[in-house]
Structure formats: C-alpha cells, structure tokens
User: Fold these one by one.
Assistant:
Number 1:
Amino acid sequence: MPKSILLPLLADGEFRSGQVLADALGVSRTAVWKQLNRLATESGVAVESVKGKGYRIKGGIDLLVEDQISAAMAAPARALLGELRIFDSVDSTNAEAMRRAQQGCASGLVVTAESQTAGRGRRGRQWVSPYAGNLYVSLLWEYSQGAAVLEGMSLAVGVAVSRALQACDVGGIELKWPNDVLHQGAKLGGILLEMTGDTAGTCQVVIGIGLNVSMPADAGGAIDQDWTDIKTVTGGQHPGRNALLAALLSELLPLAAGFEQQGFAHWRQEWLELDAFAGSPVILNTGASQLGGIARGVDERGALQLETTTGIQPVYGGEISMRPAP
Ligand code: BTN
C-alpha cells in the first residue's frame, strides 16, 4: 500500500481508528499498522497512536494535491501547463524532467515530489529534501534558438520566485548572484537549470527550484550553510505548499514561455532591486582562483559586474560562489 493512499486519510490531524482506516482502504488493521510504522522509518512522518482513539499525525500534514494546485494557479499559467506530475518520492525532480525531455516530452511538463532521494544542488552538492516539508519542482521547456538566447535565465527565475513569494505575503526576499534566494542573508531556496539537446539549436531546459517551506530541524542539520524556511520567516502564517506552488508556477510558466523573446533584459531591473550584495565587497571563488572586488550588479546578459582595481570585470558562468569580504 503506497503512502500516498494512507496519508491523505490522516492529513487533517484528526484521530482515525485503525478500523476506519482499514475499511476505507479495504485492507486489514494489521496492514494499516504495518504501513504506519513504515511511514515513520521511511519518511520521518510521526504517527501518534492513542488507545481508544486511533491514529493521528499531530498538527496534520500538508500534502501536495493536484486539483488544489491547478485551481489556485493564475489562468494564463494554467493555459501553459502541460502535465503536472506529483511523485511521492523521486531521485530528483530535475533528473526526472531531464529523462522525460530525452524521451520527447514537450514544453510545460512540471515534475514535483513530496521528497527527493538524490536532490541536486549546484556544484555537485546535495539538496536536502525531506518528506512533505518543502517544495521541489522542475519545469521543462523547449527552445529553438540555442542556449545563447537563454543567458541570464536562472537569474530571471530568482525574480519570478521573489514575485511568487510576494504574492503569498512572504516579503523581504533578496537574491544572491547567480541564483540563491535569501531572506536576511539565510538561504531560503535555490535554482538549478539543466539543459539537454542541441546547444546551438533546439534544446530543452529544466528549471529546478527548491524552496524551504517547513524544514524539520534534523534534516536542516545536514545543510552546510546558513538557511531558513518560509515557516520561520512568516511565523507560520503562509498559505501552505499547494498555494505556494501554484503561485510559483503562475510566475514560472509565463517566464519560460516568454524568455526566448524577452531575454534577461526584461528582468534585469527587478533583479537589481533584489540584489543582496549591491555595492558590497565580495570575493569570488572560481574553485581554481579567488578574485576580490565590489559587486556592482549585473549586465543585460546576467554577468556579475565586479569592480576591481583594474576596472569593471564581467563574470559569467554559474560555478562561482560569493561571500562577503572579511
Ligand atoms: C542550489 O544549489 O542552490 C540549487 C538547488 C536546486 C534544488 C532543486 S529541488 C528541485 C530540483 N530538483 C533537484 O534535484 N534540484 C532542484
């Protein structure tokens, strides 16, 4: 019996007896009990058991529900949506979207999941992806004019994430070049673009976004940098993962559909207004070398404008990290 069948029956946080659950699912009470035990070990979802009352998930659980997401999306974005695929668990939503791209899946496919077993971050890092706490989403889109016209796209996605959060009354978002989503200096989300196909012609882009919504403390302990989540930022006053995902897709689908024509120039001013490091001394680590200077925003291609002793140097590429200078 998959979790996705049993969990919705307990999602509201109310007690249900073993018999009620067993009847609803057409299985034995022992099968229900076994599955609830597995939930705790496999997903970290704690199910409370009280004699005479039954089982409950204390505080409930905010599961992803396709109808709720689709109903809450803005109409223009809904018109651009192809398939919305919700996995209980997947290795990586980006990896799944890439596999589907290679099988010929078209623009508008959205892959999301309650958990990822091998969530991918930038620079080969792992993206911590516990069950039903955060958002992990990937959008596939096909372009015909090659990779060059897609420069700056990951920065534009950061702007779209900020807009979506603002629409859900989650303010104070800042962006760190090239594509970290921050709140008061702590990482709230990350963006990972991957590409397949012909970089000089028809190519498919997967736009992956991870957003910390309600990160369990034990899972968060595995993150090697300062992080936060939407629950902390809002004191728990947010509309829930389905509404947050709908808001995200409402911004993301039109961005993906229009980017080839609009380019980053369309998004640049808004990015500059969200720039966490504008005018700050920074050190760029390229892995092989370090370069110090003052961050002076980005140009129309999304390249960081680094002011050094020899003048402004544009910095391209996504394999660079940035830290405030000591
Ligand atoms: C970063 O390192 O900041 C980028 C993190 C991107 C994580 C998201 S979660 C959804 C999608 N699937 C993945 O495996 N990675 C991206």
Number 2:
Amino acid sequence: MTSPGPDIRIAVDSAGLQRRIDELALISEAPAPVVTRVLFSEADLRGREYVRRAAREAALTLREDAVGNLFARWEGSEPGLAAVGSGSHTDAIPNAGKYDGVVGVLGAFEALAALKRAGFRPTRSLEVVMFTAEEPTRFGLGCLGSRLMAGSISVEKARGLKDREGRTLEELRCAAGCKGPLESVTLPPGYYHAFVELHIEQGPLLEAQKVPIGIVEHIAGPSSYRATLRGEGGHAGAVLMPVRHDALLAGAEIALAVERAAKGSGSPDTVGTVGVFRIEPGAVNSVPFGAYLEIDLRDARLGTRERALAEIRRTAEEACARRGVSMEFEEINADPPAAGDPRTVAIAQEVCAELGLRSLRMVSRAYHDSLFMARVSPTTMIFIPCRNGWSHRPEEYASPEHIASGVEVLAHTMARLAV
Ligand code: GLV
Ligand code: MN
Ligand code: MN
C-alpha cells in the first residue's frame, strides 16, 4: 500500500443520493427529462440554492468566491494543513442529462456524509467544490471557475468575456450576487493537498469492458478555433463554375482537412470536430459568399495536436488561395493536456483493489475542472460507467450501483489523503 489508510467501513446512502440527483434534475430551463442549466440563468441560480441547502444539510461550512465557485468544508483536526478537495459542476449544456458534473458534486457530499457516519475524523480538512461554468455555453470558454482558481486566465480577459447578448461576466456575476473582485478567486499556492473528481465516463469503455471504476491518468487538452471565410456570392444559375469563389466549398475542404489531420496525426488520441458550420446567405439559388466554422481539436499529447493544427492551417490556406476566398483563422482557446498525479492515482487504484472493484487507468477525452486543478494540486479523477457512453443528452444514465461504487472509492481515497 502506498499510504496507510484508516480501517473504515463506508455505507453509501444510494437511495438518498439518487433522490437528490433526481431533485436537482428537475431544476432546469427545459421540461424533464431534459436538463439545461446555463451559467447564471434562473435555473442555474436555483440549482446553486439547491446545492447550498444540500451542503448545509450535510453540516458542511459554506464559502463562495467572487465568480460563484461554492466551497463546502468539513474542518479537519489540523485546519492549517492543505485540504483534500473534490467536486465538479452543476451547470448543464442545453438538452443535457442529469449526471454530468452532478454526480461529482452531490456524490462528494455523500462521500463526506458516509465518512462521518463511519466515525472517520480527518486530519486535513475535506472540501467539496461546485465549480462555476464548467460548460462553455454562455461565454464560449469552459471551466471558467476552475480556470480562475488556478490563475490560468487573466482577470482582464475574464472580466471582458461577453455572452451572445453582449452581457459581460462582470455584469452577470454581480447580478447573480457574487461578491468581491475576480482577483480574489485565485487559490493561494498549496491550497489543496490533493484533488479527486468523481465523474461519469462520458464514453463507452468502462461499460464495454464491464469495469466499474476508471482512474484518470491523463486529461486530453482541448483547443478550439474559428475560421471566417469570405468569397463572392451571386446567382446560382448565372455565375459559371470557373469563376466562382464559393466560401462553402473552401469551408468543406477545411472540414475534411480537420478529419484527415486528426486521423493521420499518428496518435489515436487526436480528435478533430467541426461542430459549427454556417454559411451566408443560405439560399438554394445563391452561391455562398460567407462561411463560418468552429473547430474543436483535442489530444492527450500537445505535440501531435500541434502538428494536426499546422496541417489544418496549411490545407485551409491552400484551399482558400486556390478558390479566391479570404480567410481569418483565430484561436478561441487552447489548453495543454494534464497528467494525473501518480501517487493519487495509485491510492485510488489500491482502494479499488481493496474494495474488490476492478479498475482501469484511463485518458479523459472530455475536459473537466480537474484539467485546471491539476495545475495547482496533485489530481486524479474517478470515472464510473454511463449507459452506451451517452452524455450531453437527456438519455444520459449511470446506475445507482455504479454511482455508489464511485462514491465509495472517492470516500476511501479522500480519507487516505486526509490522514
Ligand atoms: C466538456 O464538456 C467537454 O466538452 O469536454
Ligand atoms: Mn459536460
Ligand atoms: Mn462534466
């Protein structure tokens, strides 16, 4: 065993946790089974109130920072020591399900409650975080709360973020009742001794291999780009083919280049997606004069992601030049991948072995707040299977048994880290 742990018997209140997951799911901008809770929407604000109540019921001490990150703490016997953290998010993209993020917040409350019931007394404090806006829906930038906590975005840039209606983060957070300057969100160095996030896998591997627990060794680094193309429009009947400057066709070449570059990067972890492709004017009898693409490119290794990006840009420039279409290519965001902390990973794996649960070391292909916590703390994630790997859709489902196993592993892992 890497670290001696207390001999505790955890009994997870699976029914109580499921009831809370179901109750939170009903706080949504859209009728059930759809869950939509966009940052600082009315549903998000009510969701936050639900989380506060759950923290108080669990007898945890609440604190909120200037961007609305919520911290619920169980004070250890040596409060001066760095805390052991867990947590995730409760915001949800449009048309989402009820488990993404929520399992990591309400599940962490249950982990602490189960440890309390078991008579465990932590030396280090245990803290659950509900991060603000893991999802990029409102400002086009994911992990806003954890990004600010890790000091990975400048306060000037954060303050200036605008949503589609032109409302700034500054305006919205003040309207939501967040107090204090954004500068105060950054965590002091060494704030966490370790951080462990519980999350549904959002992929099919655990289910397919019938393994109940995944332990995250790497989190793929996400990046996104926008390409704005300008060609020349005209009558679909009258403008002959040799003289066309069709922006859609240049965009189509870029979309295919994204696929080709991701497939041919040499790494199975490179994934490229064109998730937004709009054209102007969008009429059947008009040559498209404008096209707008948003590209999502991710990899567990920066080198292969950068090579894929260079290949995409080279092809895009060549296609646009050949077609007489102008292109503006901009980075929206690019985060490096994160590595899990080997000791924390080993502890979680030992816990699984001792509980008789099979586990698999994994790459997280989705990003999470742990991507940023890993920059300021030894970090890992505990994954549980979800049906068909579905996520970001109302059919998202994780069984109460798998959730309970995840909570049990989380509780033991936090306990070992806290002594
Ligand atoms: C987060 O939801 C992601 O897009 O990975
Ligand atoms: Mn998500
Ligand atoms: Mn999530």
